[in-house]
Amino acid sequence: MRSASTSASPPAGRPATPIPTATAWVRRGWEALRPHSSGVYVNFLSDEGAAGVRTAYGRRLDRLVALKDRYDPGNLFRMNANIPPSRDAGAATTPG
Which of 14, 16, 22, 39 is a good FRET partner for 87, with 20 to 30 A between their CA atoms? Predict the structure, then answer.
């Protein structure tokens, strides 16, 4: 098993704002490597959204959503590669 991580950072002393050309370069590189990949490491997710979470957890995601529904239906713990609760669970705990 091999692992690779690619990132781009601004030079020292420059603001840490996104640089569109660097972001595009990293994404093009990832797209070139994707056919040779078997998944993603959840701690490397950034702004991939729900598709990235599904790729990282695969068939385990449904079980994790069920756990989220039971223990965190209000989605308090969401500042990560978020596994949101199902819509029904969140609606049941929304104050009205």
Answer: 39
What is the token pair recorded at 47?
A: 């702004």
3's CB contacts (< 8 A; 6+ apart) are 41
Which residue in the block uniquely carries the two structure tokens 């079980």? 63
Q: What is the pLDDT of residues 12-38, one digit of tens each?
A: 887 777 778 878 888 898 889 888 887
Residues 6+ apart with CB under 8 A from 10: 16, 17, 19, 22
Angle at 9 between CA 43 and CA 82, to 5 degrees: 25
User: What is the spatial distance between Cα 86 and Cα 68, in angstroms, rounded to a whole number?
Assistant: 8
Contacts 24+ apart (CB under 8 A), 14-19: none
Pick the closest to residue 50 from 85, 5, 82, 87 (CA basis): 82
Are the beta carbons of 75 and 91 closer than 8 angstroms? no
Residue matched to tokens 């490597």: 33
